[in-house]
Amino acid sequence: MRYIVLSLIGVALVYGQCNMCTPDSARSPRPYGFNPAVLRLPPAKDTSLTIYFTFPDSVRQGNFTVYPNYAIWVDSLRLDRGLITDQNGNPFAYNASDPSAGPIHFDQMHRYKQWGSGATDYANFVVYQNPGISAGPAGGTPPIGCARVCIRTSATESSDTLRVKVRVFVNVVGDVDNKDTTDIRGTLGRVDTTFRYAIVISASSSLSRGLTNVYDLRIQPNPAYQEAILSYTLPNAMAVSLSVYALDGRKVLGRDLGLKPAGTHQETLRLPAGQYLIRLETLYGFSTTRLTVIE
């Protein structure tokens, strides 16, 4: 069986909790794999990363071609040297007890599933179904997914390895359109594989690897009276959305700004008196700033 790997792409400097992500076929590697081959990050940064991954549509087992489902063993997420942590400095790992408090959010919630025949053989999995096509057999429709992570890089320049265990399983041969993921033990076969992803912490590394997120985010005046001008710069053309939150977490404004060309742009904000968190988001991450409005 060939390796199944994860794709870690594009980022922005942020502080705070992660949100769930949305799988994006255009950002998911084909036919499967990860991009970039090595994750390069600068030291001592709080960083938001969206992780896109693609699993193989089909796998050869002897003389047979099967179209398996996949289960990420979320309790297995570990680093060899711990050079990245969550933003509170805790070990980087999926928090199965309270996912909202952890540094990684998958596009779906995990499931507590039986993985073996023993009474205690249960663990937490995020399961991906092989979608297949109605004409069958499955082809060109690999399972894709994503995860949003909020991490802090070590101040020490060095290399690390992220390890994650994945179960590849088949329950019903020929079940193209409705892959059975109720039993991840794999009634017709299973393979458990631990994948390794290289991470390099280096002062010469760029968070963006050529595609930076929003930068030079400014609001003037601040504090503002009734009206403020938000300005931001994009290094490349990208779709942008604007959200404004009150400090108690309420979303008070949301705008889809559409596809913006490279360059500097402005948005006018009219808000009642109060304190707000302004968030601009693109496919590559999000950037935030604060605004105070006075009467």
Give a topology summary:
Blueprint: E1 5-13, E2 39-41, E3 46-54, E4 59-61, E5 64-66, E6 69-79, E7 84-86, E8 104-106, E9 111-114, E10 122-128, E11 144-153, E12 158-170, E13 189-201, E14 215-225, E15 227-234, E16 238-246, E17 251-260, E18 263-270, E19 274-282, E20 285-294
Parallel strand pairs: 2-13, 14-20
Antiparallel strand pairs: 1-3, 3-11, 4-5, 6-10, 6-12, 7-11, 8-11, 9-10, 12-13, 14-15, 15-18, 16-17, 16-19, 19-20
Task: Please provide a written account of the structure.
The chain is mostly beta strands. The protein folds into two domains: 5-201; 215-294, Sandwich (Immunoglobulin-like), CATH 2.60.40.1930. Helices cover 0% and strands 53% of the residues. It has no helices and 20 strands. It has strands spanning 5-13, 39-41, 46-54, 59-61, 64-66, 69-79, 84-86, 104-106, 111-114, 122-128, 144-153, 158-170, 189-201, 215-225, 227-234, 238-246, 251-260, 263-270, 274-282, 285-294. A seven-stranded mixed sheet has the order 17-16-19-20-14-15-18, with no helix packed on it. It has a six-stranded mixed sheet with strand order 2-13-12-6-10-9, with no helix packed on it. Strand 9 and strand 10 (122-128) form a beta hairpin. The chain is elongated. It starts with a strand and ends with a strand. Residues 1-16 and 208-212 have low confidence and may be disordered.
Essential attributes:
295 residues, disordered N terminus, mainly beta, 7-stranded mixed β-sheet, 53% strand, Immunoglobulin-like, 2 domains, 6-stranded mixed β-sheet
